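Record inorganic diphosphatase, 231 aa.
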Amino acid sequence: FQIATKDPLNPIKQDVKKGKLRYVANVFPHKGYIWNYGAIPQTWEDPGHKDENTGCCGDNDPIDVCEIGSKVCSRGEVIKVKVLGTLALIDEGETDWKIIAINVEDPEADNYNDINDVRRMKPGYLEATVDWFRRYKVPDGKPENQFAFNGEFKDKDFAVNVIKSTHEHWKALIAKKTDGGEINCTNLTVSDSPFCCSQECAKATVDAAPPCKAANPIPPEVDKWFYYQKN
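=>
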């Protein structure tokens, strides 16, 4: 499920690729996602901006978050997190930052303050994260993903600066100072944005959405294991 950036009010919808509903593959030894996977609102990785650290432009999405706490969150749940570090994924030639964070309400949150705390408290978790992102698209017939900094994680301060930078890109987008292409910037909360709409307008948009129909059956390959030798 993803934030549908091209739809009015950006609802959360199941991603579609080549006309088919998209599911994440189970690449041995990982079953589905190994963290709570989400995004930071009011951020945007600008596809017209070449990142000075990675040398690649942004992926046109909000910045992604891997939340490593003990609770499995519900889809669409909004939580407050503590930023710990970041990984610079290069996904099909685009910069795709992955912020490592922990829910501030997690029982062990006080023990995590920087990326080295993750390495100390959860040995192997960061290595598994790199492995997951490197190989998750291989079952789709795509090559392994690459990383900036040789797959090394950057610390909290670096990650916060990345978030601040992508927030500035979002502010330019929502103020119509940057061309967002097909991104729909209609919103209710940024009063000085030219895209700001009224509650009545937003309600009309929601009411005009087609009613939910019966869910498609889950294809059998969703529960398939994929195994291949690492390069």
